[in-house]
Amino acid sequence: MYMKIKLFLIAILFAGLSGINTFSQTPRFKISLAEWSFHRALGKGEMTNLDFPKIAKTVYNLDAVEYVSTFFKGKAEDTEYLKSLKDTCTKYGVKSLLIMVDGEGNLADTSAAVRQKAVENHYKWVKAAQFLGCHSIRVNARGVGTMDQVQRAAIDGLSKLSDYAAKYNINVIVENHGEYSSNGKWLSDVMKAVNKPNCGTLPDLGNFYEYDRYQGVAEMMPFAKGVSGKTYDFDKDGNETKIDYVKMMKIISDAKYKGYIDVEYEGEKLSEPDGVKASIALVNRVIAPYNK
After folding, report:
1. CA proximity to 213, closest of 259, 257, 245, 260
2. Is 6 exposed, middle or buried (0-12, 13-18, 19+ CB in 10 A)?
3. pTM (predicted TM-score)
């Protein structure tokens, strides 16, 4: 009798612990909101960068955001501004994941002097990212020259910026953002040559142009520290018309990635709010099987 009672109690305890683990398990994939989704509203002054975290949480129920530097240009070293932005995030329970940095020069410029100036122009965004609690800044590996010339320049520029960013515990991640960077093999070879733990990629599911997007994402995923879920338009079933999201999710999953996938609506047919809602619904649907 005593042994039966003991086994019964152990069974109850095990079931309780199993229940706790089940309910507290963190989902493999979560959704963040890319600020570029509202580039038209931001450009028209209908919303501001300071509004963005609040909108992400109160309108779309998302708890993580990705900024674009041009929407708070000139504020990277404005401590009061950054504190206000950080306080808004704290108030609404929103995480700042990264800053997409544009307009600070070409990190793959074939001129060493111009390239070094571009590297240094990014320093302030590294510091701003650390202040906001971000894990990364997204940069561009652009330059003019042959594929090999620009690749060598990119390796140098990214290496130098990554060394600086490491002091602040910030990653430097490259998006496929046109020119050679939208060639998955070219960019993955750059990553292999840089070979630094805080230098990686931000695969954008849309920005491949002539290059096969599925091959490109597969080549970039081993170095990914984020994923950008670009959307343009949707069919009657809510599927993206240019990108097979089910196929993309298998590629992302096979690469053992775990973390946030941003929604970045760039379409013209739907309004920005409706496009974001459709994007969230799509990403929620395709990540669901992996979060079970």
Report:
1. 245
2. exposed
3. 0.91
